[in-house]
Amino acid sequence: MTGLGRWLAIAAVLASCWAPTEDPAHVPAPAQAPTPSREPATPTLAATRVRAEPRDAAAMVVPRASVTAQTRTRYAGSRSDDRVALSFDDGPTPQATRRVLQVLRLHDARATFFMLGEQVQRHPELAAEVARAGHELGNHGWSHRSWRSLFPSQLRAELDDTAAAIVAATGVQPRLARPPFGRFPASAEQLVHARGDDLVLWSVDSGDSAGADADTIAATVVERARAGDIVLLHDRDGRTVRALPAILAGLRRKQLRVVPVSELF
Ligand SMILES: [Zn+2]
Asked: Is residue 234 annotated as part of the catalytic site, yes or no?
């Protein structure tokens, strides 16, 4: 009896030492029974890849979710500061991404890029350039199909495949996700949070996806942006690129600092 009890106690201590070494955001809330990680195989593989490439450490974004283990849905950040975030969706593209990087570098600004998996697969070198320049990477799904039209299993595959493509190209595990068109069912929000990611929308639409010209895009952003705003832009074509210098100059005039989305909170 005593011997068995002691053996069980030793086994319990050993089990408690068997702590996962993954990102704490992936660890499920404390539970009575040991449960397997909710993460599917792909992100685990991806996390291994991240650790295997220390040379990318300088470019890695440390997402807020990994620090607090609290995932949220964000439309804007703190209004009581001087920070604002520019976000670029649908890339990377040969038409715009490299030029966006050049303008951001000239203005010493960092931004957040919500990438499509299919674009990362086509242009992994551009995705890598974005990461190397110190910008933040986010997951925009694979195909830009509306998350409202996808079954949960399809959405999970889109997010997993996109995250895996981003990790393969850049060594960075994205911890932010943005739904195409800004529309999503409640089940998608739950899925994103369960993955340990923040769901990020926006509070200022530049209008660049609606066909506005460069001057109008710049005027819209500069006029509307205030502290805490997340600005929606796209690295898809030249209009946004041409608008960007005026946007950055205008935000500076308003004494707003441009930071990646995760630094707004
Ligand atoms: Zn999009």
From this structure: yes
Domain boundaries along the sequence of the chain? 73-264
pTM summary value: 0.75
> Which among 89, 90, 160, 229 is annotated as catalytic?
89
Distance between CA 48 and CA 36 in Å, rounded?
Answer: 17
**Is 73-264 a domain of CATH 3.40.50.300?**
no
Using one digit for the tens of pLDDT, what is the confidence trace for 116-147? 999 999 999 999 999 999 999 999 999 999 99
56 is catalytic: no
pLDDT tier at 71 (50, 70, 90 boundaries)? confident
